[in-house]
Amino acid sequence: MSKEINRLHPISAIITSTKALKSMIFPLVIIIITNGFHFSFNFHSDNFWRTIFLFGIWGVGAILAFVSGIVKWRTFVYWFEDGELRVKYGLFVKKKRYIPFERIQSLNYNEGIFHRIFGLVKVQVETAGSKDRKPEVELTAIRKAAADVIELEMRRAKNQVNEQMNDEHSLIEEVPVPTIYHMSIRDLLILAITSGGIGVVLSGVAAIISQLSDIIPYEEIFNELADFAKIGAFLVALTVIVSLIVAWFVSFVITLINYYEYTVRIEDEKLIITKGLIEKKRITLPLNRIQAIRIVENPVRQLFGFATVVVESAGGNGEEGKDKKITLFPLN
Amino acid sequence: MRTEPMHKISRKGLTVWRLYGVLQTLLLLIVAAAACYGTYYFEWPSFIYFIAVAVVILSAVLSTYLFPKIRWERWRYEVRDNEIEVQHGLFVVKRTLIPMVRVQHVDTTQGPILKKYGLGNISISTAATVHTIPALVMDEADGLRARISELARVAEDDV
Question: Which of A214, A329, B101, B116 lies at a CB distance of 3.0 to 4.6 Å from B155, suitable for a disulfide?
Fold first, then answer.
């Protein structure tokens, strides 16, 4: 078994820091807006020091994010030994984690836009021990070849066990991979149309609005609305309907992008789900790790004769679980 | 009742715990000093002095001397073929039995202080819980980890 030590791809440093930076954009916007754009880089201006101060704080945060990204990349190593996936990370507090291949519940590959440019992939390894709803191991960015090695190692570890049990059984039986389900464009459209994502979009909008409450003069808007209401309930209803339609359309597009090329396969006793247009996702789940199967029919989909099949695994963690769970089959 | 688990944790672990106690006391000392200063400056009632001093002394005695000692005396663990048993507790003694079959993965953690003493924490994760054996000598921790993972593998797959 190979004992060479693997690192993440350097790009992962950038990905990690941009992720941190992304969460810092919103505070920056707030700072700029609340200051009413009174910024000046002119030394003699009154606003000069304040500008420097605010941007200074943000700059320090940005640099910290960047440094932590680099540190994470430099300190993170993983390797395979004794049928285990082993990772080591941490600068001051050194952490090591050892996961026997047999214990891996699911293996997820994610390819974001960044990853796709450089031919990389993010790998998430989950065991049943998922404590804080996070994958046990997350390899932020590695080459696709390296990702394949992980799977190869897993298979090899498994085969070794099999070998011990019955030697003659040949290891390599390349069965043509049967596709269980491939979502056609028509099905995809139906899924997108009936998607219940409206609530998500609406709550997102609500969250943004509540964040902006300091800036938007609600009182004035409210007064105007009062006038508006006088014009007629019809107009109000129309606005509500239009905004609902817009929200629905957004969720339609999101679903379309997320579930593009949705395919379910069974290979080597493993359930493999791939999907995504911009961000490609691939989820591998050993069949004997499935804890339960649920079939969900929501009223709208019943009309079309569709149902959602949800596969639950013990490693399933909240949000991510959703991805792995929802599969849509025509029921007929 | 079965006999207690065999192994105690390293003597150095006690030292490390004392060190933690000292750090905690120092932190309390700063808070207490601030309180005393506030009392002096704003002329708060003077019993605050006594409380501050009492808290610091209590913390010094308890968290650097007594508690680590009791904890260290109590802490025991044993790795058997099919199970891991740990026993810990300050006043209430708790014994936990972790079946090997249920072990999902094993972590070791080592912070700067532990590193200085060549110690490490080892965490055993099952599907539901995480059990930590603190302050083991690093070689011992590695050996233990290897044994657990070996034994956990032999057991039939189970979640």
Answer: B101
Top-ranked range on mean pLDDT: pick from A163-167, A220-224, A305-309, B42-46:
B42-46
Parse chain B into domains and list their residue ranges.
8-73, 76-154
pLDDT greater than 80 at residue A314: no
Chain B residues touching residue A134 (CB < 8 angstroms): none
Residues of chain A with Cβ-Cβ distance to B106 below 8 Å are 97-98
What is the pLDDT of chain A when averaged over all its residues?
73
Residue A325 half-sphere exposure, CB side, CA atoms within 13 Å?
20
- Nearest to A138, CA basis, from A166, A173, A97: A97
> Domain B76-154 class?
mainly beta
Cα gap B79→B151, rounded to integer Å? 10
Q: Are strands B83-88 and B94-99 parallel, antiparallel or unpaired?
A: antiparallel
Q: Minimal Cα–Cα distance from A285 to chain B, Å?
A: 14
Q: Structure tokens of A124? A: 């998430």
Calculate how close chain A gets to B111, using CA atoms only, in Å: 4
Lowest mean pLDDT among A132-136, A170-174, A186-190, B129-133: A170-174
pLDDT at B99 over 80: yes
Per the CB < 8 Å rule, is B127 touching A128?
yes
Cα–Cα distances (Å) from A107 to A73, B21, B57, in that order, read 21, 42, 53
The nearest CA of chain B is from the CA of A288 a distance in Å of 9
According to DSSP, the β-strands at A179-182 and A263-267 are: antiparallel
CB contacts of B98 in chain A (<8 Å) are: none
The answer to whether A322 and A304 are in contact (CB under 8 A) is no
Total residues found in chain B within this entry: 159
pLDDT of A5 > 70? The answer is yes
pLDDT in tens, A218-272: 667 777 767 766 666 677 777 778 877 887 788 788 878 877 877 888 777 777 8
Q: Which of A82, A100, A129 sits opposite B126 (nearest CB)?
A: A129
